[in-house]
Write a structure and sequence with these properties.
Layout (H helix, E strand, L loop, with lengths): L1 H25 L1 H10 L3 H12 L3 H9 L2 H5 L1 H15 L10
Length: 97
């Protein structure tokens, strides 16, 4: 049972991260502009969390990603495909912010 909980929580966490990356990708210009004017990573994470309606922990993942990984069409397609695959799993975990 404990392993199932851990796996379920890991899956929910991965879905949250992929959703956050997708939001950042769809607003890449704003993300880059925000990063350019923000004084430090903590401020950037706080502002990204607010802008993208995600947790600061998840915003940290977005903040440390390379621009290439966020902006390329190939990366966008991979993120979308993985998210669709996870969501289509039998009994997918509830989505969380």
């Amino acid at each position: 049972m404990h392993a199932e909980f851990d796996e379920s929580e890991a899956l929910r966490s991965r879905i949250r991260v992929l959703e956050a990356i997708g939001r950042a990708q769809s607003r890449i210009g704003e993300v880059v502009a925000l990063a350019a004017v923000t004084g430090n990573r903590d401020d950037l994470c706080r502002m990204l969390a607010q802008m993208l309606d995600i947790t600061e922990e998840t915003a940290h993942v977005v903040a440390i990603m390379s621009l290439e990984r966020l902006a390329t069409p190939y990366s966008r397609a991979r993120i979308s495909e993985e998210l669709a695959e996870l969501r289509s799993m039998p009994n997918p975990p509830e989505q969380a912010r």
